[in-house]
Amino acid sequence: MVNTVLVTGGAGYIGSHACVELLQSGYQVVVVDNLANSNCESLKRVQDITGKPLAFYQVDIRDRNALAEVFAKEPITSVIHFAGLKAVGESCEQPLMYYHNNVYGTLVLIQVMADADVKQLVFSSSATVYGASEHVQYTEDLPIGAINPYGRTKAMIEDILRDLSATDGLKPTESPWKIALLRYFNPIGAHESGKIGEDPNGIPNNLMPYVAQVAIGKLAQLSVFGNDYPTPDGTGIRDYIHVVDLVKGHIKAIQALQGEKFAAGGCKAYNLGTGRGCSVLEIIETFERATGRKVNYKFAPRRTGDLAECFANPELALKELNWKAEKSLDDMIADTWLWQVKNPQGYN
Ligand code: NAD
Ligand code: UD1
After folding, report:
1. pLDDT tens-digit profile of 325-348?
2. Domains of the chain and CATH, by start
3. Angle between helices 105-115 and 149-166 in degrees, nearest 10
4. Which of the following is catalytic: 13, 138, 150, 240?
5. Helix, strand, or coil here: 57?
6. Which residues pair with 241 in a beta bridge?
7. Who lines ligand 2 at CB under 6 A?
8. What is the pTM of this model?
9. CA 271 to CA 228: how far, in whole Å?
10. Is 150 among the catalytic positions?
């Protein structure tokens, strides 16, 4: 049987890379996206890279009838759920918009999935669900407790999905839910073709697109948020992961959901990170070395809500999904730069 995967948010940064990987691995792909933070040009390029078609529906996941129609038309076997809003600052200003889009949107999606008896789901969670943990290396068994509305939408959705999976024991006659919660660390980079990549609206919030836009001259100067953290060079440490490695983890997760481990159903969280921490100054130095461009920066006060250091323990994903990140920081930066140089205005 051909596997048909519904990719919600498939026109976005991570979703478009997932579509490439799915098509190249022999899956049929159906994308649902309302284009709130993306451009369907990304999907044209996905088809261009792979030489394979995909089905696209411009639908908001909160529109239950429209979503149900997609399930009625397409032979969907599993869902990768990327659709969501993701800007931490905006979520503090407009929390209801975030709860409505991310939490309510997911409720509608899983209701429609249940109606269609499609019960394999891979969910885009985030390392942000670990909140202000005193640990620097996160394992999946740490308590979750996000510290901003965006993070709380992810933590709430995780709870909802765990509760949903727990109902299986009450309904042994129905097919069980099989759910993987993938907690991403810091995805960066782009497809090696330079045809798809991250295309943030306005001034980027995240480090890597900001650095790339400074290097190409679109922005004047990077502010390094804090040089007085208790880290070797005083700047914040994160676990940066190549977006192509990250999306490969989703294919491994689908395979696991369809395998022995999830035969009786279940809902399980996996960290997707490299397990290596890297400071802001290391990113700048590597960027300058890899691209030959200067990154103009200054030190600025710490950003509210930032942690000094966090990185993944990725052992569970290796053990149970047979996945590990392969690409180096140099690969991440070279691919970011190729995308930036080939598409200085993003998809526009
Ligand atoms: P993105 O904004 O590029 O992609 C999200 C896509 O979802 C966009 O194309 C947007 O138009 C679509 N979308 C949003 N709300 C929708 C709705 N109601 N109905 C239909 N489509 C909708 O973001 P991304 O970086 O690709 O992130 C994908 C997912 O991964 C998100 O859920 C995000 O929270 C999560 N995540 C991202 C990161 C990161 O650093 N990029 C880290 C951790 C988790
Ligand atoms: C941020 C979000 C997190 C989200 C993730 C991916 C916050 C507090 N956290 O994580 O919830 O899941 O993005 O979307 O917003 N930095 C600078 N200058 C900049 C930008 C960043 O010095 O202009 C530093 C930060 O202080 C941090 C590192 O670079 O040390 C990485 O920052 P960023 O890319 O924004 O990711 P996170 O803060 O880890």
Report:
1. 999 999 999 999 999 999 999 998
2. 4-189+239-272 (3.40.50.720), 207-238+275-342 (3.90.25.10)
3. 20
4. 150
5. strand
6. 187
7. 86, 88, 126, 128, 150-151, 186, 205-207, 210, 222-225, 236, 238, 280, 303, 305-306
8. 0.97
9. 28
10. yes
